[in-house]
Amino acid sequence: MAFENGDLAIDYIGETIDNYKRDRTIFSQVYSLIPVFLNRPDWPHCYDELDRTIEMILGNSLTGLVFEFTSRYLHSEEIVWPDDLPDSFFRDLSTFHTVTKDLVYQFWAGRTTPLKLYSIAKSSDHPYGKTLIRFIRMDGVNLDLEVDENDINTIIRLLKGIINNDENE
Questions:
Q1: Structure confidence by residue, pLDDT tens digits, 21-72
Q2: In the chain, what is the straight-line distance between the N-terminal and C-terminal CA atoms, in Å?
Q3: How far apart are CA 20 and CA 45, in angstroms?
Q4: Which residues are registered as beta bridge partners of 143?
Q5: Which of 62, 66, 130, 144 could form a disulfide with 125 if both were Cys (CB 3.0 to 4.6 A apart)?
Q6: How far is the C-alpha of 96 from the C-alpha of 93, rounded, in Å?
Q7: Nearest-angstrom CA–CA distance, 67 and 127
Q8: Distance (Å, rounded) from C-alpha 84 to C-alpha 68?
Q9: Are 131 and 124 in contact (CB under 8 A)?
Q10: What is the value of pTM for the model shown?
Q11: Which residues, at least 6 apart from 107, have a Cβ–Cβ distance to it below 8 Å?
């Protein structure tokens, strides 16, 4: 694997390592910030502000940490970690990557293709025979629908018509 900045972890995330040595709660501090930004009415347009705020805590931006280091090199056997790395750092960084990577990926996809479909989720309220489906866009905007079997069949028929380019659907 070719490394852009060499094979020393310190050359990529040295400030995060130093900040972690001073305060082992830095990742927890970031976890507490994320919902604040996700619940803002201007999300995802406030992502850059979140990124700068996280950089003040971690020493690296969330985007830089996830895109430029953890996604590429975290589990590489070729990366050389400092000898004085706290035992819990690698575990905490791995957990942080797992928790935040989807947020970063969804944001970047949402920024470049905000109206594309990200996911469809379903929940059922069986005692009342109701099913709720949620269409989630890349920018995090949701459309929730209460549907029954007929509604679902109609949606399927309409989508098949779109795929087949049927003008009558």
A1: 999 999 999 999 999 998 888 777 788 899 999 999 999 998 888 877 887 8
A2: 51
A3: 29
A4: 135
A5: 130
A6: 5
A7: 45
A8: 23
A9: yes
A10: 0.65
A11: 44, 47
